[in-house]
Design goal:
By secondary structure, the chain is an all-alpha fold. It has four helices and no strands.
Length: 90
């Protein structure tokens, strides 16, 4: 999971996210406005790649599940293991 974290932290600035260093894992990305809609789209595509499944954007609570690096990694871990419920029955 550490390599996935490193990859995500490396990609976020490419997607326009403004990270402020130290508290990057738990710092707000969406609610704080540190990532814009284009960056969110890139993030969605990356998460789809990592989980190996398409994601219905309407089925994700973006601010709750994807607002932090920690939350994003948790989401990927849940959905890689097949324990997530987004996208099918909601």
């Amino acid at each position: 999971m550490e390599s996935l974290r490193s990859e995500l932290l490396g990609l976020l600035p490419n997607w326009g996210a403004k990270l402020d260093g130290g508290g990057a894992d738990d710092g707000s990305l969406i609610a704080s406005g540190r990532i814009d809609s284009v960056g969110l789209f890139e993030l969605l595509l990356w998460i789809e790649e990592k989980t190996g499944a398409p994601i219905d954007p309407a089925a994700v609570d973006w601010r709750r599940e994807w607002d932090t690096v920690t939350g994003i990694l948790h989401y990927i871990e849940q959905h890689r293991n097949g324990t997530g419920s987004h996208g099918s029955n909601g």
